[in-house]
Amino acid sequence: GWSFSMGSAYQFHSWRVFVIVCALPCVSSVVALTFMPESPRFLLEVGKHDEAWMILKQIHDTNMRARGQPEKVFTVNRIKTPKQIDELIEIESDTGTWYRRCFVRIRTELYGIWLTFMRCFNYPVKDNTIKLTAVWFTLSFGYYGLSVWFPDVIKHLQSDEYASRVKHFRNEEVSHFVFNFTLENQIHSNGEYINDRFIMMKFKSVTFEDSLFKNCVFEDITSLNTYFRNCTFLNTTFYNTDLEQYKFVDSELINCTFFHIRTGCQISFDDDYSAYWIYFVNFLGTLAVLPGNIVSALLMDRIGRLTMLGGSMVLSGISCFFLWFGTSESMMIGMLCLYNGLTISAWNSLDVITVELYPTDRRATGFGFLNALCKAAAVLGNLIFGSLVGITKAIPILLASTVLVCGGLVGLRLPDTRTQVLM
C-alpha cells in the first residue's frame, strides 16, 4: 500500500527505501517478542515450576479482569509435569569425544522430533490429522495458485483486447520525414523509410516486418515490446536509444552506428499502463483481505469454526468458478476481491481449528507439519497454474474452484471445537 500510494516515480528509484519499510514489521515483531512471557510448558519441562506458576496466574488474572471478575482467585488442583528426556543430561557427563557427544545429541533430538511427529498419526488425533492435511493442502493449492497468477489472467484479457485494436500499415514509402510522436500498437509491413529521422519518440508495442531503413537516424528513442523482424538497415545511426540487439530479429544491419545505447527498460508506469495495472490489481486484492479478517474475528465464536471454514471454502470455490464467465476487467477484479475476502476467513478459522484439535504435546509439531505441507502445496499450485494460465484461463479457474469446494466439504467433517476444552 505504501508503494502504491507513493507513486510510480518514487517506487522505481527508491526501491531500497521500500524494502526497509517492509522490514520494519519484522523488526517490530522481534522487539515485541522480548516482552512476551515464556511458555509455561517449557518452564515446567526445565523444572522452573515457580516461574510457570506465576505466568499462569498472570494469564488467569488478566482474563478474569476482562470478564469483569477480578476477585476470582487463581487455583490449580493438579499439575501434570511433562516428561523430560534424561538421556541428554547423561550425554553431558559422557567421557567420550566432543564430536561424539554432539552426534548423539543431534541424533537424540531428531529421534524425539520423529517420535512426536508420528504421534500426530496415532489415536485419537489420526483421523483429524488426515482431514486437516486435506484441508490445508487444498486451501493452499487453490488460494496461492490462483492469487499469484490472477494478475496474469487480467493481463491476458488486456492483451487480447489490446491486440484486437492493432493497426496494420503495409507497403509504406516514407522519405525525408521526421517522426517525433508516439507510435503505439502498430504493425508495419514491407515498408521503405529513406532519409527519415526518428527523434525523441516512443515505440509501444510496435513491430516492423520486412522493411527497409536507409540513411535514417534514430535519436532519443524509448521502446516497449518493439521489434524489427527481418528488416534491413543501411547507413543508419542510432544515438541514445534503448534499441538493443535482441530487438532486431533476423535483421541485417549494414554500415550502421550505435552511440550511447541504454540498457534495461526505460518505460515508466505512466508509459506502460499494463505494468501499473498488475500492481494495482494486487493492491486491491490485498485490500479485500481486511474486511474478511474483521468478519471472521466477529463471527468466529458465534457461528462456529467449522461453519466458517467449510462455508468460506465452498463460497470462495463458487466465486472462483464465476471468474470463468468474467468478460471485463472490472468484473474480474470484483470477483477477485470477493474471493480473497472469503478465503482469508477460511485461513483464520483453519488456524484456530488446527490449534484446538491437537493436544499440547503434539500441537506445535502438528501445526508445523501442516504449515510445511501448505508451502509445498503453494509451490505446486504456482507451477501448475503458471503452466496453464498462458494456454487458457478456464483450466486454472475450474481446478482452483473444484479443489476449494472439495476441501471445504472435508473441513465440515472435522469435530467442532467451539466449546471443547484444550487438551
UniProtKB/TrEMBL annotation:
Chain ranges of the SV2A/B/C luminal domain: 167-258
Annotated InterPro entries: LD_SV2, MFS, MFS_sugar_transport-like, MFS_trans_sf, SV2
Matching Pfam families: LD_SV2 (PF23894), MFS_1 (PF07690), Sugar_tr (PF00083)
Membrane-crossing residue ranges in chain numbering: 276-299, 306-325, 331-355, 367-388, 394-414
Chief location: membrane
Molecular function, one GO term: transmembrane transporter activity
Biological processes annotated in GO: chemical synaptic transmission; neurotransmitter transport
Annotated GO CC locations: synaptic vesicle membrane
Alphabetical keyword list: Cytoplasmic vesicle, Glycoprotein, Membrane, Neurotransmitter transport, Phosphoprotein, Synapse, Transmembrane, Transmembrane helix, Transport
Cellular localisation: Cytoplasmic vesicle, Secretory vesicle, Synaptic vesicle membrane
Family affiliation: Belongs to the major facilitator superfamily.
Name of the molecule in the record: Synaptic vesicle glycoprotein 2C
